[in-house]
Design goal:
single chain, alpha/beta, four-stranded parallel beta sheet, 31% helix, elongated
Length: 213
């Protein structure tokens, strides 16, 4: 049994979004809630319930409601990751957002929360953060490729904006990161030539050119 004591937020949210679904055998009316409309911390608690486990909502220490799991029995934790590419997410993602990302990547990938991922993770997905934090994460996952990402998905409640996205949104077409001036010249020539090839002056897709391209 799990008790949730942030009573004002949880109970108010449950009452606000609960909708009657029609009569049931007892003559009472069942109510249903789309978990996506609940506060994120409450939704995460509900989604983490195991079969037979309950979430008890309390006010001043007194139970006022109980949420029970109806999910299938989960598979035992995985210990062998040799056949998949493990992506550890340093972004705060809900369980549904991680599941969506994993489904889009396909069966060759396994997307795990930062705290659940093994130290041997292959990829570390990180929002724009400080160099110090990236250094700490690299020490925690020494074999992982660190991938910085800016994403905005209102449907899944994910929003991570950074300086590059703001510059591109303001009208920039290409973001070059060059190791030196000769390298900058090659990148600039490639960017200009590619634009001309794409449409004879029409706008090219936004892109970021890495330092080693």
């Amino acid at each position: 049994m799990i008790e949730f004591h942030d009573d004002t937020t949880a109970v108010a949210a449950l009452r606000k979004v609960a909708e009657p679904t029609g009569p049931i055998m007892t003559g009472e009316r069942a109510r249903q809630i789309d978990v996506g409309r609940l506060p994120e911390d409450v939704a995460d608690l509900i989604e983490s319930l195991r079969p037979g486990e309950n979430l008890v909502l309390t006010r001043d220490g007194n139970p006022v409601a109980t949420v029970s799991s109806t999910g299938a029995r989960p598979e035992p934790p995985r210990t062998d990751y040799d056949d998949v590419t493990v992506v550890a997410t340093a972004m705060k993602l809900s369980a549904s957002a991680r599941m969506s990302l994993s489904a889009e990547l396909g069966s060759d990938y396994l997307v795990l929360d930062l705290h659940s991922a093994p130290a041997t993770a292959d990829v570390l997905l990180v929002p724009p953060v400080s160099p110090q934090l990236i250094g700490g994460l690299r020490a925690q996952f020494p074999k992982a490729r660190v991938v910085l990402a800016e994403v905005d998905d209102p449907e899944l409640g994910v929003s991570y904006h950074g300086p590059v996205r703001r510059l591109l949104d303001a009208g920039a077409e290409t973001y070059l990161t060059s190791a030196n001036v000769p390298h900058l010249a090659r990148q600039l020539d490639h960017a200009v030539t590619r634009r001309q090839q794409l449409g004879g002056g029409s706008a090219a897709p936004l892109e970021i050119s890495p330092a080693d391209s």
